[in-house]
Amino acid sequence: xxxxxxxAIDPGSNIGVSIYTVTVPDLTIVNIETYFIxxxxxxxxxxxxxxxxxxxxxxxxxxxxxxxxxxxHVLAIEDTFVNFRFPKSxxxxxxxxxxxxxxxSRMNPFIAIFKYxxxxxxxxxxxxxxxxxxxxxxKVSSITEITNFINTRALxxxxxxxxxIGYITIDMFRANPGxxxxx
Length: 183
What we know:
By secondary structure, this protein is α/β, with parallel strands linked by helices. Helices cover 43% and strands 22% of the residues.
């Protein structure tokens, strides 16, 4: 049985990570693992330290570890968006996403990268485009292909979002199996 790993990431200062292992070519899920990474944990409270730089360095280290352990063939990640209540957050989000993409691409220049808008991710699992965390929890928890491997009710909202990101990627491959030949 040949398998591939899909690394799915919900980026931000709180990061959700899911690793799906699926069979090829039928795309049956055979394993799922999730992680929550709180970049604030790496934030040194020293005022003389560049706190964002330390978070990005820590993020790079975490992604490097995930790449070494899982050797994914695919990266699926939520794309940058602007929250009009907190417009500056898009600047930080873009830096987190760029750090993930750069780290992954350095380690595997042939990895396939798929980026999705948040509304596309939400609608992809049957939630409305403006679904909140509770609706996302309910929708992801209703997908038996996921709940056969993991207790979604014990996960953070960021891990739930990463599960949704990975799942819509698998659905995309199922709808367009020719994409697998490019991996």
